[in-house]
Amino acid sequence: MPIATVNPATGETLETFQPLDPYELERHLARAEAAFREYRTTTFEFRSQLLRRAAEVLDTDRDRLARTVTVEMGKPLAQAAAETAKCARALRWYADHGAALIADERPAEDDVADSGATAAYVRYRPLGAVLAVMPWNFPLWQVVRFAAPALMAGNVGLLKHASNVPRTALALEEVFRRAGAPEGCFQTLLIGSGTVAAVIRDRRVAAVTLTGSEPAGRSVAAVAGDELKKTVLELGGSDPFVVLPSADLDAAVRTAVKARTQNNGQSCIAAKRFIVHTDVYPRFTAEFAKAMGALRIGDPLEPDTDIGPLATRQGLDDLSALVFDALARGAVAECGGERLDEAMGQGWYYPPTVLTGITSAMRIHQEEAFGPVASVYRVDSLEEAVTLANDTPFGLSSNVWTTDPGEQERCVRDIEAGGVFFNGMTASHPALPFGGVKRSGYGRELAGHGIREFCNATTVWLGPT
Q: Where is the signal peptide (predicted)?
């Protein structure tokens, strides 16, 4: 894929970028190494002030950055502005809490004495340059949720962003430059995917974090594993949205629409499989399909647009093929079900779609639908709902609608996912660890778990003098 800005609402190529040649890439890596030698010795106060200034830049440039994001990947403008604001909040959160999250840990005095030491503690030290291979769907947030904790811990960042959001990638580098980051502390690498392995293998790169597809995660993990370098992977998801009889159905329907169509349905943590108890299935399904069908599709720069285009033509083709396969095998489209790119001009549009009658013979039963397409299942019991929720290779997050404490505890115990959200939709927050199990990856971002992922937990032991 060329490194280029292509407006998905029109299909027009707005700007192309030359990838870094070997000499330029070497200069970036050398700068990262030099920057880490100095940055690792800075104080927590210095780093927190850097993050606060970066947050101020995001606030100041919110409208411009939001428009850049929308033009590059099609997110409705209001959602892009909200993403920018969320990034600023996360930077401030780590500025406020980061030092305490990786402060020295001191064992109990009895344990210290039993070890034969006069004193002992654990210090969290930065690893070095962290390479971030990031996707286009949340092109600001995905980067900041790695960069804020990594920089606060004293690491430096190298960003290999998706090839279809180069303007956003360069804008992020500019945010940290304007905030006063030391030279080489945060750099964007305009490189193709074919160069990533060589960068991972470079001795100056200490660790890798990737958010993206399962194949991309496998590729990065294989190279990093061969080099014995730490990785964090946040991959795909096919999150269940379970609705049980005690649910507030009006709230569940409203949330289901938002959970399935946020970011034009292109989110790893978007609810994708709606598992509904038979007692409430008819009403939920009818109201859900009606609300999905009423969403306004159009230019993402227009304020009244609910659903913009998919980010890439390949994404549109893949989603259309999934739905076509399901319909050909007997699924029913309660709304949507046919691509709109011809009706909408050259843009890559797909309508909000609700499918019922899904069976295990259909590809969509196991594959992730990356777009505004919902699969609705009917179940007769909580046990059946949990079994179906787990019938996927993914395990990123989950949503469950019930007010019954016993049902909630059963779901926490048995649903195979990195998160269980009750009576609301999955969302990421700086104070809560984020990540998945099974083929959704490993490791955690955000909270204390995220900042410690790329630290060396160093045991310090002082013997008698």
A: none
Task: Give the residue from 371, 27, 22 showing the smallest Cα distance to 192.
Answer: 22
Within 13 Å and on the Cβ side, how many CA atoms surround 444? 18
The total domain count for the chain is: 2
| Segment 172-197, tens digit of pLDDT | 999 999 999 999 999 999 999 999 99
The residues assigned a catalytic role are 234, 268
- Two tokens at 348? 């890559």
Quickly tell me which residue has 């002992």 as its tokens.
120
Q: Which domain holds residue 143?
A: 4-235+440-462
Amino acid identity for residue 65 in this structure: L
User: Is 189 within a domain?
Assistant: yes
Residues 6+ apart with CB under 8 A from 211: 133, 134, 135, 142, 233, 234, 235, 268
Same-domain status, 203 and 338: no
| pTM confidence score | 0.97
pLDDT in tens, 398-430: 999 999 999 999 999 999 999 999 999 999 999
| List of residues 6+ apart from 331 with CB closer than 8 A | 355, 356, 357, 358, 359, 362, 364
**pLDDT band for position 449 (50/70/90)?**
very high
